Amino acid sequence: MKLEKSRLISEAAPQPSASQKVNFTAHEGDMSVINFEGVKVRIVNINGAPWFVAKDICEALELTNSRMAIKALDEDEKGVTLTYTLGGKQKVGAVSESGFYKVLARSRKATTPGTLAHRFSNWVFREVIPSIRKTGAYGVPFAFLNDHTKRKALYIAKASKRGHALQSCKTEKARLTAEEAELWRKYQPELPEMSHDQNN
């Protein structure tokens, strides 16, 4: 995700007026993902300003009711976006940068040392924000993750087919080995039992 560096440094990103309903469509190129201790937070670039997927930030802050956390924000700090997800297009709640900071600041767990929320808030303020201010970006572009996920799914499907084929071969081999042992027992019972290794 590339953000306009000057906007983030010199002024707050423009927000819609409080009376406006915030709805926007994000494309794959407008998204990036940050990952903290296995929790992924999607960030949508809307007119050069970062908007955070509400469900993701609430998960990172260990908030169980994202609707309540977002409800307390001003109308111009929350919205709905039609966004690309790994499962396709979905409507998701999004929070502006100022809304994100408010949710972070209001989280009790974010001030409790040792919690995921506390570590997440420290990481955001110590690494993510300075990186955005310095370079204009942070996180992996969603298009790259989406491409990787598709390739990984294809690999898993191929591996699964190969795995089934391998398992089928192993089953067939075991059946043939047992059949051979039975033939030897039936037709030449005087021969000593052959170990599995000798049958190969």
From TrEMBL:
It comes from the Bacteria. Residues 31-136 form the Bro-N domain. InterPro entries: BRO_N_domain. Coiled coil: none annotated. This is BRO family protein. It comes from Aeromonas salmonicida.
